């Protein structure tokens, strides 16, 4: 089924203007939404942030490229250290 509506050019221009304004207001909101990353991550979270396997992360820790903080039996890695590590590997 097809519906035809006759409109005036003024109405069409006003409608376009409203749609553009609405879209423009929505775009900055989408760009400011960022996932919250804790200051200290467990090893699994660190793997996700670096996009590496647990084995690769273990090798980086063993070689001293990434330092681990021990909290009782838990191991944590600082977000800042991981971001700095990634920045140092840029080519």
TrEMBL record:
Which Pfam families does its entry note? HTH_17
Domain (Helix-turn-helix) ranges: 40-89
InterPro entries listed in its UniProt record: DNA-bd_dom_put_sf, HTH_17, SinI_DNA-bd
NCBIfam families named among the record's database cross-references: excise (TIGR01764)
Protein's name according to its UniProt entry: Helix-turn-helix domain-containing protein
């Amino acid at each position: 089924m097809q519906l035809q509506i006759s409109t005036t050019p003024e109405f069409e221009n006003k409608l376009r203007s409203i749609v553009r304004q609405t879209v423009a207001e929505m775009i900055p909101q989408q760009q400011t939404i960022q996932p919250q990353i804790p200051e200290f991550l467990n090893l699994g979270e660190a793997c996700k942030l670096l996009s590496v396997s647990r084995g690769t992360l273990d090798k980086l820790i063993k070689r001293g490229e990434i330092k681990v903080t021990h909290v009782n039996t838990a191991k944590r890695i600082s977000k800042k250290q991981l971001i700095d590590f990634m920045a140092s590997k840029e080519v």
